[in-house]
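Contributing new records

If you add data, match the layout below exactly. Sequence lines come first and carry their own label; structure lines follow with theirs. Keep one chain per record. Anything else will be rejected by the validation script.
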Amino acid sequence: MKKLLVVACVVASLFSCKSEHKTDTTTSKKDSEIASKVENLISQMTLDEKIAEMTQDAPANERLGIPYMKYAEALHGVWLVLDYYGNTTVYPQAIAAASTWQPELVKKMASQTAIEARALGVTHTYSPNLDVISGDPRYGRVEESYGEDPYLVSRMGVAFIQGLQGMGDERFDENHVIATAKHFIGYPENRRGINGGFSDMSERRLREVYLPPFEAAIKEARVGAVMPGHQDYNGVPNHMNTWLLKDILRDELGFDGFIVSDNNDVARLGTMHFIADTRTKSALLGLKAGVDMDLVIGKNEKLAAYNSKVLKDTITQNPELLKYIDKATSRILTAKYNLGLFDAEPKAIDTKTVNAGKKEHQEFSYEMAKKAIILLKNDNNVLPLDMSNIKSLAVIGPNAHEERPAKGTYSLLGGYSGLPPFYVSALDGIKAKVGDKVKINYAKGCDLLSNSKAGFPAAIAAAKKSDAVVLVIGGSRKTGGEGVDRADLNLYGVQQELVKAIHETGKPIVAVLINGRPLSINYVSENIPSILETWYLGMRSGDAIADAIFGDVNPGGKLTVSFPRSVGQVPVTYLERPDFIGSGKGLFKDADKSPLFPFGYGLSYTTFKYGTPKLENTTINADESTSVSVEVTNTGDREGDEVVQMYVRDDYASVGRYLKLLKGFERITLKPGETKTVTFNLGFDELNVLNQEMKKVVEPGTFTISVGASSLEKDLKKVTLTVQ
């Protein structure tokens, strides 16, 4: 019998291999055909033509029929960087998209973005941002990230890339474009919260925190391009770091796409890092490390490194260097073939499609916005407001309204935003919601970037003559985003003084935060009964905010970054290692160490009860898997969403570990009284640890599996799994 089983297994294996081989043959046949075409083209190209191909937006080569590959940003909708065609859909900013905890929404957003990109002639986009935020919200680009956890960033990043690029037969078809995973790697890891600051860190931290999203992007989503970060890694700039770009990215992770520099960064090997004393040396360092494309926005020749004037003489005098030029050019040409650009007839920009604004896309942006809103506080159930109980409502604050700017785009959409056909402000949304049922008393109160209190009297008067107040505060692209780092995290300008003045009127207040980074809002948290975190919700912001205020939407989003109590608490993140040493017990002497609001946190207008987690098997072997299940019940009187989170800790291991790591999550909708069971897998991916040899292994011992509503210990229920 045993012999028969062995034979059966061998036969099954043969059939399995045959099936896999067939798939591989199909793929390799297409790849071989493209490789042959690329090799033929390379053999016909002059050195000038090859170098010209190695820049973003390289013009079409009419002599050889090489097509143009147009780029744009696509973080939360299409942005053409230097051109504003307008009327592209602007979705919730990345930090808000992640707050939905629903990767399928991010995937759909990206697929719609790809369609609009193609209509604009764009086939290569510089998104998504896979940086894991290191717990320092002084850094302006927090808003571009999916959060502080590598697993969450991985899930959102894979979804985005799959939506943008397509998968299977749809990959890079006429409705999809190339994604660029950025910034490789460890970009937010700096000591001052400064954009592009140097990063000194261990290989362990690199691999445990920053590498997982890129590994998932390559292995699961087959991302087509990667962009290195501006900074250096332990003294070696990323754009010349062969260990990062070749040994890890290509050889270890198997990345087979092309690498595009961040803006001006090949030349910056000389002008910022002061390693190369000529642009030619900078260019050679970038080429040898594997940077294929030189991004210089605006095509400023003085900033370009991959330029015939810089490279041609040196390459001609040393033909050995030509292999680097050929490899880079080949990768870019391969991308153009994969996109079908050689087979497509050149098309004019489809302004009709773009200008139509894609009504269905705008509606989906609205749906995402409603899912992204987070309820941080709701004492005495001030929210939702009952329209039948109020006759007048004050809408106050510098972020309550924004008119269409004369130039550029709306500052309350966040960074890397295109220009939508319209933007619904909080004031607009509230007015549309209440119609003539409630009188709206609007007063700005103060400007975001001013210390003037001249608007306070009008705001106080508006509050006093109203039954309740919606106070819209926070930040904007003017106070955050790329290159807008901060030394403190308090509300900008005189906003906190405005909050105090309105609080002193004694009126019920709802604080609405529109911002791109966590803020130290201690006074707001202590004194204002209800707080909504909305981040930047996209072009339909106000509609979603009004829905949440009046209860047509029950907020179900959760934080993907921790809120610090003060800048002195930074970095603040749930990714902590044990630190209880001596009598200090790992605490600040004169301040609370815990975050103001923690990772994974978010309330609801209803309540949820968690049952005791149950393991399918309480003991497994190291090469086996099991699952953990938990029942969640809506114990309130209104339908609501809950994000169920699973965290894992290897109790005793051969190396130090974080206290817990997110390894699973699911957002569910429950009617009043309804119970659902949520199940998470527990196998190698969830249980492995990076050992002393930097290898992923599952070590025997016990594991604490925590399931609950946030990363807070009080919100988690635990069960122990034994691995033998």
